[in-house]
Amino acid sequence: MLDDEISVQIEGQPSDRARGKERSIDDVNAEADRYAKEAAYWRNERAKAFQERDQAIRENVATKAAALETEATNAKNAYRAALDIGASDEIIRWQREMSRIEAQRNEVERAQQRINSRPTSTGNPAEDLARTLPPKSAEFIRQNPHLAADERGRAKLIAAHYDAASRGIPVESDQYFDHALKFCGDDTGNSVQSPRARQKNNAQQPNTVTFKTREDYNRARETAEALGLSFNEYLRRKQITDTSPPG
Question: 38 and 14, same structural domain?
């Protein structure tokens, strides 16, 4: 929430800050566990899909290589036979055929090299994740490898991303990375406020306008609309008016 944004509190109900800005470590961990299970499932599915794809490519390349070897042997035999009888047209034909086969064999060899050089896990979860991300996010993970050390940490990062998106925080902005650090926690995971600490923070928050009832809140929104003001601007002016000394 921006510094000049006004929070709303309706008596007897949680404030919008308590509902949305910060959650307890238990809430975050519970969500992280859910993401971790989903992430593990899809990670396995993705790995299996890549393995099946690579195996199919290997088999296809091997089949093509074997077929080209047979074609190359047949072309050489036919070329020698043409040389033996001095058939110039056949000699030229089989020279061209051998050149075509050799070019295809080179393509197959390059395909084999590509499939055999596909990147494998480094054994470092943070680095493996960083290799899949845009440059700024990759650098952020490399500077904070503890955030991606296990499934729960990676799940928290996913949750942090969607939480930032829900707040309109631009991806890969400084605010985005600050939010990720606060959301996921430090090495000990203790940066998220407890419900008691959050209540204390809400009680001390100066930028909060309290309404006695939901009807009062709805009436304020209608007034702001009638005045042509954003609700936040109306609350800001109301706060100034309510706190100004009489006279």
Answer: no
Cβ(71)–Cβ(101) below 8 Å: yes
161/183 Cα distance (integer angstroms): 9
40-64 tens-digit pLDDT:
677 677 777 877 887 888 888 889 9
Residue-wise pLDDT for 121-163, tens only, equals 666 788 888 888 888 998 999 898 888 888 888 888 888 888 8
Domain end among 88, 116, 144 = 116
Cα angle vertex 27, ends 30, 183, to 5°?
A: 100
Instruction: Specify the DSSP element, H or E, that contains 128.
Output: helix 125-130
Distance (Å, rounded) from C-alpha 44 to C-alpha 24? 30
Q: 60 and 1, same structural domain?
A: no
105: domain range? 32-116
Q: Which of 116, 131, 154 is the last residue of a domain?
A: 116
Task: Clarify whether residues 53 and 13 are in a common domain.
Answer: no
Within 8 A by CB and 6+ apart from 213, the residues are 10, 11
Structurally, the chain folds into a number of domains equal to 2
Q: Which positions ≥6 away from 154 have C-beta within 8 Å?
A: 36, 39, 125, 129, 147, 148
d(CA 184, CA 155): 9
Give this prediction's pTM: 0.37
Within a domain: 103: yes
